[in-house]
Design brief:
This protein has 2 domains: about 5-85, Orthogonal Bundle (Hypothetical Protein Yqey, Chain: A, domain1), CATH 1.10.1510.10; about 95-155, Arc Repressor Mutant, subunit A (Orthogonal Bundle), CATH 1.10.10. It is globular, with a radius of gyration of 21 Å. Helices cover about 70% and strands about 0% of the residues. The termini are far apart. It has helices at about 5-15, 20-40, 45-70, 75-85, 95-110, 120-130, 135-155. The protein has 7 helices and no strands. The chain has about 170 residues and is an all-alpha fold.
Length: about 170
């Protein structure tokens, strides 16, 4: 059974059981999948449906942050419950150690040596972590690893560049 079909069946079951939160969350997710299908005139495969659901989870995570910043803990809790429901349809999330191993593999595969190579490394990593890890977190790990690699490979070199001279803005 495809992810798309499973999502629809679970939504129907939630309607029959009277689980309002699950029903509404799955209905929103189904509508997001359906909208992409209509826009692109295709039936989504599992990978594309997973990408849509991952985007829905990302939007809800951002909403949680905004609600907490605005002092709306009740809405933040509701969004977190929706994230938990949608997470059941996504592949298992990567653990911290698995992510660090993938980052190391990506740096070796791309030959990255400085923070300027962040885009190249993220390009290699993105398809392997999509739907399984938060992109901001992965980007932070890559930046941290590349900064460590740059400091370790060139001792005594100012990471701000030769013209910075330790001054803010790099001008004198």
């Amino acid at each position: 059974m495809s992810l798309r079909d499973r999502l629809h069946d679970e939504m129907t079951a939630a309607m029959r059981s009277g689980d309002v939160l699950r029903r509404d969350t799955l209905r929103m997710a189904w509508n997001a999948v359906y909208a992409v299908e209509k826009r692109d005139h295709v039936t989504l495969d599992d990978a594309a449906a997973t990408a849509v659901l991952a985007r829905e989870v990302k939007m809800r995570r951002e909403s949680v942050e905004a609600f907490r910043a605005g002092g709306r803990e009740d809405l933040a809790t509701k969004e977190e419950a929706e994230i938990a429901i949608l997470a059941g349809f996504l592949p298992e999330a990567l653990g911290e150690e698995e992510l660090r191993a993938l980052v190391g593999e990506a740096i070796a595969a791309t030959g990255a040596s400085s923070p300027r190579d962040l885009g190249k490394v993220m390009g290699w990593l993105s398809p392997r972590t999509r739907g399984r890890a938060d992109g901001r977190h992965v980007s932070g790990l890559v930046a941290q690893a590349l900064a460590g690699a740059a400091e370790g490979s060139a001792p005594g070199v100012d990471p701000a560049g030769p013209d910075a001279g330790g001054r803010v803005g790099g001008t004198g």
